[in-house]
Specification:
heterodimer; A: about 0% strand; B: about 550 residues; alpha+beta; 6-stranded mixed sheet; 4-stranded mixed sheet
């Protein structure tokens, strides 16, 4: 298993380099000058030229690329043009906010999605099944920004229960977590249902029932663990994706997380910050995938990685 | 077993992340509790400043204007009028040739870290701006000092024109006489830092409040990114402590949220520049109309015409454009009449402003005739560019679109993101556009040279290729008799606006603020900036 993990980590290195290269090329192709953007109305061509040279922005692209990779390998991800702080510090500050939001959303997704999926599977084609599947469909298909604004309107402006936006304590987490968790809950519920229904048709379930086991034990003792296999994989990847920044949710609810940083870095052509954010989120997605693989083999002993 | 471990790990991560966010809140609350929050002024900023170091930013001066002092200060004596008064320098002498400035510094002034302010701090600060290692953006406020160019180019380790005579006297020698020098160093860019504290802070200066040391009336206390900044009263301020306990700058990018927060008392000041459409509401409101504070602005709105794009290279076409725009209607309909029509480049309130400059009249018939004469009897098509997500600019451009349509000009409004917009403009390739400019310092140079010096004219996409005008703008900087200087500027202004029609002046708008009834002595800065010194304001709960 350890060997497998190492192998996966090694494979991820070219992936990271590729991602850096693609972002680098894209940012070099689109028009935009970070110094012009910093000086805005107070533009002075000679100052722009001097500062560009001082920041080595005039060097050939391949030199800038290799310099970036070299520095990054030494832990230096550069300094943000716009926020003037080290990229690593900005990411370090933003990450806990995104982490809290993601884990809260995942929590919502699990505690709503899995029971809903189980109930739907057990009572298939009943009213409960239709209700939960309708609920899941809504979660999956409702745009996050719309659900977010709707919740702000109801719970902040009309009822005054929760703050509109910001991120200064548990009250601020509730709405974004529900908005974000709802769509995941929908996926989890549908996946749990279909997977459980499939498992229930297996021979070992029939055996369990034949030996006189109560249905509840059949369900929780034999069926559930096996039916959760695909759910775990999907959730691990989803958590990793959410960690890379729920851009829209973070913007609507004013959460100072990775997603907002990434968007503002794109808008201000803040190359070091954007590169840092992209490398960081790529890394998270890779780790998420490895965790999913490991969990998979733990849950299903038939799968062995060599 | 594994499952338990997994849950444990997840629980620990979860708990830690709550502690992370929890800790930062507690630190911030502690900062806020240092002073009575009722005696703090709460204002909003649309954009988070990148830094409080004025050498590294050209736009966001909220903190610097309040936490630092300058040798000379531009003080608002009445709305729209300013005077240069002693700041950290008690008095100064200027040599007869206009080259040597000797500043006699105030004694006993303390920095926020307790260090005494001395001439060496001035030398350090100005040298730091010009040091290539600083990568400063505001160098043009000091690059007229002798030896500045060599320092900026890395050919010298010090600036030859900066000389400490003794602890309380510094002599600054200029390369050539530079009439607006005092006005230049009275801008935020002339803020004085402490050598010891700033050297120790390194790149954290301006970013970490506790390391950002000045002599100003307020002390930079805390900065929570994406949330707020706090400055508190400097009880030992040499001109007397401010009456306010402090100022909280909240970062609120959405103007509508700002308005809601102002109405619920979460903000003390609402800056109408951020949402001009709210002006009629506040003026019609019984509750607020008595609490609107307005002041003129030494600045103006204008249209840039890119002369390198055909047929805008033809002066008759440009004159037709000037005449086809009904500025009075625009001012009345889009800005509720809150301002005054501008006819030139130097706005009212600026020294050298020419009140007698001929008015450009709205005359679509004559405009059409001029177009026909230029060979465009059926008009032509042109592009106006603007930054996306700027509803106020779009409204303006749409109004212009319909006005120009009347003389046969088909206007296409092109929207692009700000990064592309500024980069294209720097290359001189941006199609014509609508913008505005307010004075950094009270001198014609800040308008005329900024827009029409050859390089600047390209970098702003005017492409007004008039070398003679450009040369005269350079020589005007060195003229020492003010009356002669202003006369030259007025001649150049007449040539650029009326003869060459290289500039479409629109209007100077008033700057309106709405303040909570408890806020007293609120005054709009002489130049009408949103960033202002808060020292004189009081709160009467």
């Amino acid at each position: 298993m350890i060997k497998f993990i190492w192998k996966r980590i090694l494979i991820s290195i070219p992936v990271l380099l590729g991602v850096i290269l693609i972002t680098f090329i894209m940012l070099n192709v689109v028009p935009g000058d970070p110094i012009a953007l910093m000086m805005r109305e107070h533009i002075k061509p000679d100052v722009v030229a001097r500062v560009r040279a001082q920041m080595h922005l005039d060097d050939p692209a391949y030199i800038r690329f290799f310099r970036y990779v070299w520095d990054a390998m030494h832990g230096d991800f550069g300094t943000s043009y716009k926020l003037m702080r080290p990229v690593s510090e900005l990411l370090y500050k933003a990450f806990p906010n995104t982490l809290v939001l993601t884990l809260s959303a995942a929590f919502v997704a699990w505690i709503v999605g899995i029971p809903a999926g189980i109930l739907s599977a057990v009572k298939k084609y009943s009213f409960i099944d239709n209700f939960f599947m309708g609920f899941a469909l809504m979660g999956v298909s409702m745009p996050v920004f719309w659900a977010g604004l709707l919740m702000q309107y109801i719970f902040s402006l009309k009822l005054g229960w929760l703050p509109v936006s910001g991120f200064n304590g548990w009250k601020y987490v509730i709405m974004p977590a529900i908005v974000l968790g709802w769509s995941s809950a929908g996926i989890v519920a549908r996946l749990t249902r279909s997977s459980l229904l499939e498992v229930m048709r297996n021979d070992y379930i029939r055996t369990a029932r034949a030996k006189g086991l109560q249905e509840i034990f059949v369900l929780f003792g034999h069926a559930l663990k096996n039916s959760l296999l695909p759910v775990v994989t999907v959730m691990a990847i989803q958590v990793a994706t959410l960690l890379s920044g729920a851009v829209i949710t973070e913007s609507i609810f004013g959460v100072p997380g990775i997603g907002r940083i990434t968007v503002s870095a794109i808008q201000s052509r803040d190359m070091p910050l954007l590169q840092g954010a992209v490398v960081f989120t790529t890394f998270l997605v890779i780790i998420g995938n490895i965790i999913a693989d490991v969990l998979y083999s733990y849950l299903d002993p038939r799968i062995k990685y060599n | 077993m594994y499952k338990k471990h997994l849950l444990l790990v997840l629980a620990v991560i979860f708990a830690f992340s709550f502690i992370f966010t929890g800790c930062s809140n507690k630190a911030e609350e502690a900062g806020n509790q240092a002073a009575n929050p009722d005696m703090m002024l709460k204002v909003a900023l649309i954009v988070e400043p990148p830094t409080a170091d004025v050498q590294l930013t050209t736009e966001e001066y909220g903190i610097p204007l309040n936490c630092f002092d300058r040798l000379v200060e531009a003080e608002t004596i009445e709305p729209g009028k300013s005077d240069l008064v002693p700041g950290l320098a008690e008095k100064w002498d200027i040599s007869a040739d206009g080259l040597v400035y000797t500043f006699h510094l105030r004694k006993g002034v303390k920095f926020h870290n307790g260090e005494e302010f001395k001439a060496d701090d001035v030398l350090y600060t100005f040298d730091r701006m010009l040091d290539p290692a600083t990568k400063a953006l505001n160098t043009d406020f000091l690059d007229m000092i002798a030896g500045a160019k060599d320092r900026m180019d890395g050919k010298a380790d010090s600036v030859s024109g900066l000389k400490v005579i003794d602890d309380y006297t510094i002599e600054i020698t200029l390369e050539k006489p530079f009439a607006p020098f005092l006005a230049n160093i009275a801008t935020p860019a002339g803020s004085i830092y402490n050598r010891k504290a700033t050297t120790a802070a390194g790149t954290d200066f301006g970013l970490k409040p506790e390391l950002t040391i000045g002599t100003g009336p307020f002390v930079f206390k805390s900065w929570t990114l994406n949330d707020q900044m706090l400055i508190v009263s400097n009880k030992d301020y040499f001109k007397g402590a401010p009456k306010l306990e402090g100022v909280i700058f909240k970062i609120v990018p959405d103007p509508e949220t700002q308005r809601m927060q102002f109405e619920t008392g979460e903000l003390d000041v609402f800056d109408c520049d951020n949402a001009r459409s709210q002006i009629p509401y506040f003026e019609g409101s019984e509750k607020w109309k008595a609490h609107i504070v307005s002041g003129p602005r030494v600045g103006l709105h204008y249209y840039c015409i890119n002369e390198s794009i055909k047929p805008l290279d033809d002066v008759r076409v440009r004159k037709a454009l000037q005449m086809a725009i009904d500025r009075e209607t625009l001012l009345e309909k889009l800005f509720y009449g809150k301002g005054i029509i501008a006819n030139g480049i130097m706005p009212i309130g600026l020294v050298g402003h020419n009140p007698g400059l001929e008015k450009i009249s709205y005359d679509p018939v004559k405009a059409k005739a001029l177009l026909a004469e230029a060979g465009y009897p059926d008009g032509f098509s042109m592009v106006i560019s603007q930054i996306t997500d700027r509803p106020a600019s779009l409204k303006m451009n749409e109004a212009i679109q319909s006005m120009l349509a009347e003389v046969g000009i088909k206007l296409e409004i092109q929207q692009m993101d700000s990064a592309s917009w500024f980069a294209t403009r720097l290359e001189g390739k941006l199609p014509s556009y609508y913008s505005d400019w307010s004075a950094d310092f009270n001198d014609p140079d800040n308008f005329m040279y900024t827009f029409f010096y050859a390089n600047n004219s390209v970098a702003r996409s005017f492409n007004y290729n008039n070398q003679e005008v450009s040369d005269k703008l350079v020589s005007a900087r060195a003229m020492t008799v003010p009356e002669e200087r202003y006369k030259l500027y007025q001649e150049l202004e007449r040539q650029i606006v009326l003869e060459d029609a290289a500039w479409i002046p629109l209007f100077s708008l008033d700057h309106l603020f709405v303040v909570q009834p408890k806020v007293k002595n609120f005054q709009v800065s002489w130049n009408g900036w949103s960033n202002m010194p808060y020292k004189g304001i009081t709160i009467e709960p």
